Amino acid sequence: MYRMLIVDDEEIITDGLAVIFGKMELELDIYKAYSGREALNLLHRTRVDIVLSDICMPEMDGLELMEHIRRSWPQCKIVFLTGHSDFNYVYQAIQAPGVQYVLKNEGYPKLIEAVMRALQELNDTMQVNDLIRESKEQLNTLETLAQGDYFRHLIHSVKADQDMAGDFVRLNIPLDASRPVLIALGSISDPESSRTYMDRRETALAVKFLSEKLLKERTVSLGVIDRYGDLIWLIQPDGTGEASQPEDLEQMIKFLEGTFELIQQSCRESLEVGMAITLSAEESAWSRLQVVYDKARQVQHYRAGDGERMVQKVQLNEAAAPDTMRDRFMQGKVETLAAHLEAGRKEEFLRLFREMAEPAGQECTRGNPYLTELYYTIALMLMSYTNRWEADQEIGASGLMQLEVHRTWGEAFRYLEDTAGNLFSVRRSGEQKRAAGVIDRICIYIEENLDQDLSLVRLADVIHFNPSYLSRLFKQERGINLSEYIEDMRVRQAKELLRRGELKVAEVGSLIGYVTPQSFTRVFKKWTGTTPQEYRMDVVGG
């Protein structure tokens, strides 16, 4: 949501424009200032996207204010509204980019048109395509990160994506989703344990770019870094033919074996790191990427020696028959479950949980070590969130560690699912209670400070929220705009003071935050249908 600040030293103009634009469905947060100095104070406290300002004001005129805006918020659009027809003012205003000039006697339609134009300019500025064109120098880095994220998702997700070909095109991945792929895994060993995370990351990227440069002579390949900091290469023969002939595949395997030896040599001499390579000796379908990758990691783990000069060829497909009972990435998936719980994504949580718990419905043996590990791993995660959210009374977390009370695996995992469902309810209830508590604090503050600055920016400072979120949260909780609530509270207090008959009308207005009697009278009449004086006469007489 964009923010618009209206500035004019004539209060009736400022308030009137705020009412007009407030009634339009423009998705605007509207702020008011009655002088250039007041506007400047607000601009120092929060972002403003459009400033609608008079030019000719005392102390600080609109042109001086414009210079401050340019320094603080260069993307801000300015619309000058004035009755001043002096050419010098007009000339200075229209020379600045992002500035429009509207005469007061041109009427509201012309002013609304100028604000709409400013909104369109803001929208155009924020177009993603424009931002991408301005960031061409970073494109290769961004593309590398996106491709890595995508393949890590494929390897560690529950199910492979359906539209891989479309994803490859969008991410500029040079591989063919309709053809099988060769997989290689490189494990980097760094003798310098003092290297930082970024040092290790830069080393892995250097190996990736070097390998792609060498492999492109005969293959189409892509290297990505997995979650453990190791390198995965996805490789296809160069060309557009169908599946490779056995002799062609054998020749390419030889080429890869020799090329990876060169890469290992370069790692030792230039980067001072070692690298063990496990290379699949056969092509795999993309649907088996997860299984083949898992087998490659097993082979790496059980290698003979340190493997730093070894390129090990393995029949990964043949050796990687799927095990329906064993979850290949249990810990990683439990971490994903925790992320879904933390973010309140209940449907995603349940989908992954049921996929992981599927073997429990097929297994009758109570002593199964894998299901025991899976149960307690998930149970510990749920207990952690129960403790963190102080929800033991609602959840009863002590039962999570009592696997023996469940008669079957199916019953045990249904208990975990029910517990997770209760945690999601607690999370949602907690959000609602915290939101209600924050709004209660704001209402108390308003009641105790009716004669003070109760602008949206000031109230947002009180609870350390951004103004737009506070405005939306208040409307969501109380069903009324914050500004309307403040006016209602002020009018209620005014009625009480007027009934007492101890103060003059102007003094009552000042005590509840209205600078001028005219402003107080206008708001009071809007809410009650009578002026303050008329109300006093009706209630107390005389």
From TrEMBL:
Recorded superkingdom: Bacteria
CDD domains in alphabetical order: REC_YesN-like (cd17536)
Question: Which organism encodes this protein?
Answer: Paenibacillus silagei
One Pfam entry name: Response_reg
Protein name per the record: Two-component system response regulator YesN
Keywords attached to this entry: DNA-binding, Phosphoprotein, Transcription, Transcription regulation
Q: Which residues form the Response regulatory domain?
A: 3-119
| Span of domain HTH araC/xylS-type | 440-538
Tell me where in this chain the PTM 4-aspartylphosphate is found.
Answer: D54
